[in-house]
Fold:
Amino acid sequence: MLDDLTRHQVVHYAPTLGPNAGGWEYRGADGVYRVMPVRGAVTVNGTDAYQAACLCGLGMIQAPIAGARALVDAGRLVEVLPDFTAEPMPVALLYPHRRQLAPRVQAVIAWLTQVVEPWLAETRPDDSPPPASQRR
Structure:
């Protein structure tokens, strides 16, 4: 249950390190987005450190299942509280501002969208990566 989190530690993730740690993000049964304060032993600002801290036993993490699937399948991570998930993380592509975007940049953006979108889609029942035919 969600209340059991108070007996556990989490690895806090913050893009900029500071004194205010985050908490466990979730959408409640009422549909309202919340953050539950949870104690943690460490705060990191990089995804590799975030995952490594969890694997070393420093606490639980909230990571996109697409990036953690191999570790879950290998039994190195265990999914907890699947009914209390965080908001999906946005994916952004950055490129220099230009009046006319080069056709090759437009082509790469279109290709990346086509490849990544099915893999990150919430509607995939098994959260598996797309078929090899969609990966390049």
Observations:
- Residues 103-120 form the longest helix (18 residues).
